[in-house]
Amino acid sequence: MTNRLTALFGGTFDPIHYGHLLPVIALAKEIRLTHISLLPNHIPPHKAQPEATTNQRVEMLKLAVENYPFLSIDMREITETRLDRPSYTIDTLKAWRHENGNTQGLAFILGQDSLLNLTSWNNWQALLDYCHLLICRRPGYTDSPDDKDFKQWIALHQTNDINQLHQYANGFIYFANTPLENISATEIRQQITNKKSCEALLPSNVWNYIQTNHLYGA
């Protein structure tokens, strides 16, 4: 039996919005997660660089988690010493596992879109050596990749048994029944630039911060 299962949820969070928050809140209830750390990326290897500064993205995260006691912020990828290189998830997970020992249940949360791109990640085959992968559904994305070998890798490690996520420290892939939230940070930034309100798409205190600091052309 592992210690209490905990999870990391990485992202650029430029800005944080309900498309991030609502699925992880539902995921926590579904699989009995008591704690999730939001992990802001420093230099994301697979995305354009953030428009907001690192400090601004972190401030928005702080505002977003105020009303959710089980959410916190993990700053490791933006405070590490070698800030001139991209943040590789495998390096983060190795360090996280080292800090928590071999028996602590650890999980990393991904959207379906990220799962389908997983084979482009650095040393992706080793991710399950350090954690479970929890997959949140995304509108318009399939559960099944086209690559036959990758599909077999997923099938080999997939579980529908929530208890296994709590009994083992790592090694499983779980597809969660989380709500489909058709919200993207790109869309929010574009709407703000076009002087359209996005108040319903993100926490009100985050929206107020964006307006006050004139982010994304507000």
Overview features:
single chain, 218 residues, alpha/beta, six-stranded parallel beta sheet, 9 helices, 6 strands, globular
Oligomerization: single chain
Mean pLDDT score, rounded? 90
- In the predicted model, the low-confidence regions spanning at least 5 consecutive residues are none
Report Rg. Answer: 17 Å
Beta-strand segment tally: 6
Task: Tally the helices.
Answer: 9
Q: Tell me what portion of residues adopts beta-strand conformation.
A: 15-25%
Question: What's the short version?
Answer:
By secondary structure, the protein is α/β, with parallel strands linked by helices.
Topology overview:
Layout: E1 3-11, H1 18-31, E2 36-40, H2 54-65, E3 71-73, H3 76-79, H4 89-100, E4 104-111, H5 112-116, E5 132-136, H6 148-157, H7 162-167, E6 173-175, H8 185-193, H9 204-212
Parallel strand pairs: 1-2, 1-4, 2-3, 4-5, 5-6
Task: Describe what you observe in this structure.
The chain is α/β, with parallel strands linked by helices. Helix content is 37%, strand content 15%. The chain is built from 9 helices and 6 strands. The protein has helices at residues 18-31, 54-65, 76-79, 89-100, 112-116, 148-157, 162-167, 185-193, 204-212, and strands spanning 3-11, 36-40, 71-73, 104-111, 132-136, 173-175. Strand 4 (104-111), helix 5 and strand 5 form a beta-alpha-beta unit. The protein is globular, with a radius of gyration of 17 Å. The chain starts with a strand and ends in a 6-residue tail after the last helix. The mean pLDDT is 90.
